[in-house]
Amino acid sequence: MQIQVRINEEGTLRNQRYAFTDRFTLISELLQNARRAGATQIGIRHDAVSKVLLVTDDGRGIDDFQKLLSFNESGWDASTCAEERPFGVGFSKCLYATSRCVVTSGCQWVDFDTSAALAKSPIEVMQVGESDAIAGTRIELHGVDLPDLGARIATLCLGFPVPVLFNGQALERRLAEAHLATMPSPMGTVHLTGKHDGKHSHHTMVFLQGFCVLNTSYHLLGDVNVVHLDSRQFVARLPDRDKLIDEDVQRKRIEAELKEGWRRILEVAKAQLSPDRFVEIYYAAMRAWGHVDLLNDLDVLPCELFDAIVGYPILDNASHRDYVQPVTTAPTREAIESGAVTLVDLDWLSDDNAGRWMLARARDYLVFGWNGLHADHWVHHHVRYFEFEALTVEALSEQHRTVLEGRWVWPTVILCGAVRIKVGGETVEITDAGIYHGDTLYIPAGETSGEPVRQASSFTDENGQFLESDLDADRSTLADLISHLRSVDPVQTLDSLMQTLKLGKYPLLHGKTFQLNVGTGSAPSHSIELVG
Q: CA–CA separation, 482 vs 258, rounded Å?
């Protein structure tokens, strides 16, 4: 017994209607046929009420009408087949999306019911006189239900190479190859936004034979890179042609070609511009497209790599880092190499590196973003990597030691004259701001604000909610504690503490006099006696 592949023609004709996933494939296929026929202008008219679609073009026309109804058999010439590999299923969409087709080309025309055509009923090709002949092709389709075609047609034709009129109005087609400044590429032609001003984008739209087959963004706003693929190298998925075959592989190839295109742009710009202007205009593009090595032989550095510490460093979740600010002018190579400017690499503030930040702040060091340059760049030899240097924090002239009973944080608090911070072999003494280190808040003489609690916690819960009321409470509690511990008047200190208790709320205490004795030592007790 032998078996072989067979085709059930009736089943094929019946099921072909389910092959197309997008009802607008009808429009794209008719546009594609007109383009392949050499049309220089295509007209589309659609009446949503009568559901009549009319497509006209000025192309070569149709010689053999049988090719309209031959499935999976391309009627194009050898050159077109070699260039574009047509599938031979384009016009078949008309049979499933309409009830009646009227096609006129040259001196020939047909008018048939699509149900009858799918039942393989013979269709007479009729002739018209020379005076009634038309140049190109005219296709009139009845029963076409595309109520939102007006909203979709402009997007559908964004990159189409042939002018298209919809209901008499010319479509913009702003991403068509003729409307863009493109450069050749092994995969086709490429337009890279930002070529002249550095305002690059990773939003890319890829077109094959005039229709979008890949869009890396969900919107059409702003500038976009555009690729028009060579149809001899790329094939779109049958039958809708809206995605590339092996898209994952082809996408990587396209991305690599875009990156290489930026390399060529940057090399030309580097040769034509001064180093300052080149870095100012193109650094963001270099970084985004992986070409920062072009900076390796330049003395100029981008401002984006340097942050000045302009405020009190706090622990946060990357949303309110107001304590750093990008510099307006990057340091020169001479200043860096001579030591006039010190660059430090610092992780964002955490509960174990606040001391490093405070030393860098005291010394006016610049925080350096090393990952914005190539690994072989010269500046890396002049950066101090603070995170790898030993850190010690100690209180000088300790005065008091206690625990802050906060709402959110409970650190040990040490009041002292100054705080000594040592990073590697460098030492500073801080007198104007508190430092959190090792679950301890070091409070020097000049600190009264309570702000150091912000180095102990970000005051953000497990759901990412910022606890502003807890921050305010703990900041006030620390400020009050500092004030009470530093007070030199015992009566004033006790009065301040008693006010927070609001003793007047308790009638039993009204009119009473008490004697209070407070012991000595690190954790003294107290005794109270009723007098009189």
A: 60
Q: Using alpha carbons, list the distances in angstroms from residue 346 to 309, 357, 434.
A: 11, 8, 19
**What does the alpha-carbon distance between residue 101 and residue 75 come to, in Å, rounded to a whole number?**
19
What's the rounded Cα separation, in Å, for the pair 312 and 323? Answer: 6
Q: Is 205 helix (H, G, I), strand (E, B) or coil?
A: strand
Structure tokens at 467: 């606890």
The count of domains in the chain is 3
Provide the whole-model pTM: 0.78
Take residue 252 and report the two structure tokens written for it.
Answer: 């990587």
Q: Which helix (H) or strand (E) holds 47?
A: strand 42-47
pLDDT confidence of residue 76: 45
DSSP string, 91-127: THHHHHH-SEEEEEEETEEEEEEHHHHHTT---PPEE
Which of 430, 445, 469 marks a domain boundary? 469
DSSP 236: B
Please choose, from the candidates 346, 334, 349, the residue with its C-alpha nearest in 3D space to the C-alpha of residue 456.
349
- The domain containing residue 15 runs over which residues? 9-170
Give the pLDDT band of residue 87 (cuts 50, 70, 90): very low
* Residue 317 covered by a domain: yes
Does residue 318 share a domain with residue 268?
A: no
Q: Which amino acid is at 296?
A: N
